[in-house]
Fold:
Amino acid sequence: MKISIKNNTQIQKMRIAGKLASEVLEMIEPFVIPGASTGELDKRCFDYITDVQKAIPANVGYRGFEKTICSSINQVICHGIPDNNRILKDGDILNIDVTVIKDGWHGDTSKMYLVGKCKPHNERLVKVTQECLYKAIEVVKPGAYLGDIGHAIQQHAESNYYSVVEDYCGHGIGDIYHEDPQILHYGKPGRGIEIKEGMCFTIEPMINQGSKYCKTLRDGWTVETKDGRNSAQWEHTLAVTSNGVEVLTKRLEESL
Ligand code: MF3
Ligand code: CO
Ligand code: CO
Structure:
């Protein structure tokens, strides 16, 4: 368990990578409409990262994953594989998760998209899950504990009668995509590792309408809820500053 502390030069590079990742999510938004395929969205993101950003899509070839984005619809929790035959329909909720490498440094982020007109119960899941991420970000500062992050998420999710997925977590990030520490999305205040200036990690809560249990499909990647009810996820890459936190993957639509 060696947690790397990034210096200002390194954080400046992560700022650039994070900004690029956020811009992929902004670029793709107008294309997330009923009738679009997740394969088409993936190709648009790949072309944008490689041709426009002159950056590297980190997911391609990562542990055998072949695509640029993870596209996770409705009951899919995470790691959905883009497919030209998977057509978005009115009322779907979709997570797009993308990681960009620029100058050797990573930016990892995801957001939920409402496809056409969605049911209120799905809109509420998406909104509360984003609130979970924001409440978690609010507790991040030197001297706080990783357990404070998990607690903030678990508290908000469960008070809304949702459950927190425990099988996947956030992670340290830098010149390595997934590094220590693990960032659990559940926990108790004051427990776990103390947060220090210069740490960089993601928070990426996955929140379920039903039970917390997951199953992985036979493609070896797609993770779905065991009970078939819907799940949502939002992710940001963060850097811990001297007195708080900087959201490296902030989008223009966000006021953070
Ligand atoms: N971006 C995901 C995360 O938040 C990991 C995706 S790995 C992949 O950590 F191989 F599925 F792309
Ligand atoms: Co991600
Ligand atoms: Co991540």
Remarks:
- Residues 8-28 form the longest helix (21 residues).
- The CA atoms of residues 198 and 241 lie 6 Å apart.
